[in-house]
Amino acid sequence: MPGSDTSSSRNALLFSILGVGVLALAVANVCLGSATISLGDVWAALVDGESGSSVTRQIVVDFRLPRAMTALLAGSALAVSGLLMQTIFRNPLADPFVLGVNSGASLGVAIVLLVLAPAGVSLTQGLELSGHLLVVLAATGGAAVVLGIVLSFAQRVDVMSLLILGLMLSYAVGAVVSVLMFYSMAERLQSFFAWSYGTFGNVAWSHMRVFGACIGAGAAASLFLCKPLDAMLMGERFAESLGTKVKSVRILSLGLASLMAGTVTGFCGPIGFLGIAAPHLCRYLFKTSQHKVLIPASLLGGAGIALAADLVAKAPGFDGALPLNAVTALVGAPVIIVALIRQRNLRKAFG
Amino acid sequence: MSVPLEAIGLSVGYEVKGQAARHVASDLSVQLKAGEFVCLLGPNGVGKSTLIRTLSGMQKPLAGRIRISDTEIEQMSPKEKARAVSVVLTDSLPQGMFDAYSVVALGRHPHTSWTGSLGDKDRARIEWALKAVGATELAYRQVSELSDGERQKVVIARALTQETNLILLDEPTAFLDLPRRVELMRTLRDLARVEGLSILLSTHDLDLALRSADKLWLLDGAGKLTTGMPEELALDGCIASTFTSNEVDWDSEQGAFRMHNHTCATVSLEGNGAAAVWTRRALTRIGYEVVDNADASKLRIRIVETDGDLNWDLETNGEVSRKPTLQSLVRHLLGQEHIGLSERL
User: What's the CA gap between A211 and A337, in Å, rounded?
Assistant: First the structure.
């Protein structure tokens, strides 16, 4: 915050609270689950390696840890992606999927699960790919195709047309998916639904490198856009008059946002709500629209929300679990509603 | 010395797909010199905004060239352009959760590194700009809490912060009340003189432009641009021909426009001082032609002052009725059948 010391010390405090909160939630995610593991046991499993029970070690290292890490990365990615979309479209309702990336992903998955699999096409054996990785590839591929179509228009039309274009594409692709579903058998549908509920539990260590690299690259690159994004928030003409390369910033932001959103959807399924809510929550907390504050804040805030939601989805102490998608909305929506009603900052933030 | 802004054979307008381009103005050749404060005037819809956008390099000209400080605008990178010319457009009122200081600081974008962090020089310029437009006390208020007029100041401070020799503003006075408009025009004119800036501003406020601009650019409905000193353009009838319509006439003695009066009755007025001036205006407004010769009219109004109180004596066909206020006089006259108000409307 230029010139104002009170708000910069307030920001520092908020950032440390968020950081500690994310860390605590990550630890809680590793400890809690269908079986509770004490902190000591987790430490033993991680550090001592051989000592301690091998089952505990397996749960911690092979399941809990990658799951917590996935939640952390996915949450950060969706939050920053949502922030970028909201800024570029100057629209508080924009989320990471406004350009139709998730409907593209679901078409890819639907083709694999509902068309190819029943038809007896077994790509998994021929290519020696695991079934899950095939789904990931299908989802990412579908997202990429849709993104390619939308971005090819991004140079030529204004942002509002682009927003509507993405929306129309989503509807059209969604319609194809529902036709596929209409002609599918119940057990096939079940596996498709399972994907569409979303989960952080499907990214194994072997995939983490790709997953982490895509998201890390996207998040790091978005930090370089802080300055032009502030100008873009005032309108593209305003930004242009300040020497911003408007079209490049637009394409780069949309590309980065969709890369992150597409990666998350590919690996974890379509996870709604988080991407639209986290940026609003950060604006409410930090009371600014400046991206050099909001981007890091969204990285932390999104990670926190995702970890908290997964904690609830795992339903510690109970048998079974809740669909992640339902939890993010059920837990998050009231928080956002309260924040907005108390601040009315939606209008402030978008004129 | 280089010319801050020069247009050579410039045609502005829009390319429309599948049709001939729509020309807003053609073959303009014009210069803006250092230290010059110029107002761009013209009737609504004549293309003032289009011209400003084109001169700032945001819209491609249909033909011709624009040179900023002797450099072709097409050869300048976005950053070079932003360092040479700052623009205030009608749609650029600030939005978002920013304090005024941060918005003004955006003007430093062309001068700062990719992080946008501000150095001492940047801060000094921001504070100077805030002071120049009289917005220092607004610095730490959220822009969403400011009035339109205050935001307008912030936007102009942002343009000054950009540290360019050339500033183009599209109707910056639109949201302001008259005193604020006068203030702003004076501020900009002083900046032009003292700092040697070249400022071009479009406005609808002819009166104010006549009083403050060093030069006027008149854009008429045919897309022709006439430039000159305000007083000369008023004298030679250019202002009249640019603006005159069926409803208004240019009054070159008053230096203002006058509405066409569709008079339907005459009235004579006796009296003097401010009371007479404003009574005359009220009568003209409701459709009377005011004459001095009492014999020429059936209706006579005499302003009489007794014990410091003003009264209006209305004489109709020899009958005199006394009205204690101007309001009651006007109401009485409007109630008269022979005004023929219904016919006029």
Answer: 32
